[in-house]
Amino acid sequence: MSLGPGDGRVEPSRTDRTEASIRRRRMYGLIAVGVIVVLGLALTQVGGDDGAAAAPSSPPAGSVSAPAGSSPDLLAFSVTGAPKALLAVVGTSASGTPGALVLPSGMTIVVPGQGETVTEDVQALPGKSMQVGVSNAVGTWTDHYASMDLAQLGRAIDHAAGISANLPDAYPIGGTVLGPGPTHMTGDQVVTFLHAKTDDTDLRWAAVLDGLLQAAPDLTQADFTETDDASASAATLKAASGSETQVPPTQVVGGTALVAKQPDFDELVGRVFGTPVPVRTLVQNGSGAPGIGEAVGRDLIPAGFRIVLSENASTFDHATTTITSTGDDHLDDANRARQALGVGDVRVTQVPSGLADVAIVVGSDFKG
């Protein structure tokens, strides 16, 4: 179990996080409106020094390149029933190296179609939406999702005759003291250990997850509350045996909101799963159709994108999806986004947004 930079943080309350989220969303909304207005002005100045030109709607054959590297085999894994979030991504990199990464409790992430959401609320989403949110958080697609509750986790651990967890401290559990260091734990001890409302939930969860993966229990459909594929999820968990669970770095912004510390967060994901840094993407729903944000996320995230802002456009009368590249350096990314969505006109602007490398206004031509 490894702890990245950012430990020792002071966690904001849920009320403070909510207020901070509202302030940030208002700020981002104003930024986004300004960006779209500036882009519109820039796109009308074709041939000017600061203008932009429309790129072909359909990129020439061979001009769209896939993101560097191959795809890992990953699972969005959730254990519910604890006071704080127990979320993780586990699996193997494209080279077959096992890996596991905790999504810190209380961390704010953008869930396509949902907006800014803390990890506790991501767990409460239906499995498919949870999968999209977790995938967007780490910037790479998780092939499957699986959830179990604490009671199911305890039973699975008992069926494996317990786990050996490398505990970071000494903990009084049920009249005995467990840890520090490698410690045998029963299912009941794990449930009590994880159900405590403490500031070190992420470290506790990482230690238990390490032990669970090492034990590699035989899991079936009955062990999961929800999953898209029980056999595949169980196989991915087994394949991750031997990994060292990482706790990624976070930071507090605005005095209250806990967010991923960049670029350290993405660099850690890249080391663990062998994935490239995702392309920052702004997505606006310009058609008004429900569920567009999540549908776009399902198409874009596997293609190497992360949605950094997901919201409605100022109007819902956009017939054609517009994909705007910030500068020529991201034209290949914009073309790749069009290929992933299957629709849209690709354009280039030389006006930087400071927020995203690619901006997409989804029109009614996108059917999801």
Structure description:
- With 368 residues, this protein is of the alpha/beta class.
- It folds into two domains: 45-67 and 276-362, Alpha-Beta Plaits (2-Layer Sandwich), CATH 3.30.70.2390; 73-251, LCP protein (Aminopeptidase, 3-Layer(aba) Sandwich), CATH 3.40.630.190.
- The chain is 33% helix and 26% strand.
* CATH architecture tag of the largest domain: 3-Layer(aba) Sandwich
- Class from helix and strand fractions: alpha/beta
Shape: elongated
The CATH homologous superfamily of the largest domain is termed LCP protein
Alpha-carbon distance between the two ends: 39 Å
Mean pLDDT over the residues: 86
What's the main sheet like? 5 strands, mixed
Q: What is the number of helical segments per DSSP (H or I, 4+ residues)?
A: 10
Number of strands: 20
Summarize the amount of helix as a percent range.
Answer: 25-40%
Sheet with the most strands: spatial strand order: 4-3-2-7-12
Brief synopsis:
The protein has 368 residues and is α/β, with parallel strands linked by helices. The chain has ten helices and 20 strands. Mean pLDDT is 86; it is low at 3-23 and 25-69.
